[in-house]
């Protein structure tokens, strides 16, 4: 049997730049030519008017599925749009093979509205452990990367999330009301208290990047789709941050988490926010 962990380490040492190139090429070929150029027939709804998908999402995911699968033979792909078509394909995250987790356009609503706050998210995981991630904001030409045990970087510069300034209200990006059920809203109620400044999130991937950069204190999300979180939680971890569910356990990309959960600039902030989420649930 192949020792995949060793193989993946070697793969990342040799081919991280190739993954980056594939992500950039997917954006250049399928996403950016449609940015602020979308026709009505290129935009569809999935579960409702706030859950959009475009031709850019579908075609960029198809591009990445082919390119990344070819780079790492024996790997599988879990992409947001493919899972929408075949929900059973999500189970590959829990399998033995290395898995690429892809959100081709994270922040589709922003993309559709002509806002630059969207990104492409790619993570490589095995057995539920995220090993590497790429967060690319093509309209801003920003690329953040993380490799487990090797740190997080933005455009080649090391990221360190630091700790919030003592005495200042914590700025926390929370699940957007348009995507939140009544039960999930109740779970987030603990954040509406003194010392906390919650706001609705935009692209999850870019909110995680803001935490890793020390520009945002924490996130608080009430859903667990791996393509939204896998890249970001590794980025935050490798920048010095932490993530916890409301029961105080690390978030698992394989699911079954006690929601909501938080990712924060440092462990103390994660514990504080998780405690508030436990009180609101």
Can you tell me about this structure?
The chain has 281 residues and is α+β, with helices and mostly antiparallel strands. 35% of the residues lie in helices and 26% in strands. The chain has eight helices and 14 strands. The chain starts with a helix and ends with a helix. The model has no long low-confidence stretch (mean pLDDT 93).
Helical run tally: 8
Describe the sheet with the most strands: 7 strands, mixed
Rg, Cα atoms, Å: 18 Å
Number of strands: 14
Give the CA-based shape.
globular
The fraction of residues in strands falls at 25-35%
Low-confidence stretches: none
Mean pLDDT figure: 93
Distance between the termini: 44 Å
As laid out across the biggest beta sheet, the strand order is 3-4-5-6-7-8-9
H-E order: HEEHEHEHEEEEEEHEHEHEEH
- Percent in helix: 25-40%
Helical/strand content category: alpha+beta
Please outline the helices and strands.
Elements: H1 4-31, E1 43-48, E2 51-54, H2 55-71, E3 76-79, H3 80-85, E4 99-106, H4 108-112, E5 119-126, E6 129-137, E7 142-147, E8 151-154, E9 157-158, E10 170-174, H5 182-187, E11 196-200, H6 204-212, E12 218-221, H7 226-238, E13 242-245, E14 261-264, H8 267-280
Parallel strand pairs: 3-4, 10-11, 10-12
Antiparallel strand pairs: 1-2, 4-5, 5-6, 6-7, 7-8, 8-9, 12-14, 13-14
Helix pairs in contact: 1-2, 6-7
Could you list some keywords that capture this structure?
281 residues; alpha+beta; seven-stranded mixed beta sheet; five-stranded mixed beta sheet; 14 strands
């Amino acid at each position: 049997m192949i020792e995949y962990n060793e193989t993946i380490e070697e793969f990342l040492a040799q081919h991280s730049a190739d993954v980056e190139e594939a992500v950039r090429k997917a954006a250049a070929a399928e996403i950016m030519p449609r940015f602020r150029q979308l026709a009505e027939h290129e935009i569809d709804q999935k579960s409702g008017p706030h859950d959009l998908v475009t031709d850019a999402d579908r075609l960029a995911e198809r591009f990445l599925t082919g390119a990344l699968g070819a780079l790492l033979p024996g790997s599988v792909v879990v992409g947001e749009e493919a899972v929408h078509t075949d929900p059973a394909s999500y189970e590959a995250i829990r399998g033995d093979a290395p898995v690429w987790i892809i959100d081709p356009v994270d922040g589709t609503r922003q993309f559709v509205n002509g806002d630059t706050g969207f990104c492409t998210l790619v993570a490589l995981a095995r057995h539920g452990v995220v090993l590497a991630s790429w967060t690319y904001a093509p309209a801003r030409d920003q690329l953040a990367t993380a490799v487990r045990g090797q740190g997080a970087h933005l455009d080649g510069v090391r990221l360190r999330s630091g700790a919030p300034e003592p005495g200042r209200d914590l700025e926390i990006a929370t699940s957007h009301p348009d995507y939140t059920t009544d039960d999930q809203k109740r779970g987030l109620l603990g954040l509406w208290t003194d010392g906390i400044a919650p706001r609705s999130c935009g692209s999850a991937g870019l909110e995680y990047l803001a935490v890793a950069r020390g520009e945002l204190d924490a996130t608080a999300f009430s859903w667990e789709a791996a393509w939204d979180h896998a890249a970001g939680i590794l980025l935050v971890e490798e920048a010095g941050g932490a993530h916890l569910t409301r029961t105080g356990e690390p978030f698992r990309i394989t699911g079954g988490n006690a929601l909501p959960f938080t990712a924060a600039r440092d462990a103390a902030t994660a514990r504080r926010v998780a405690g508030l989420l436990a009180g609101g649930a």
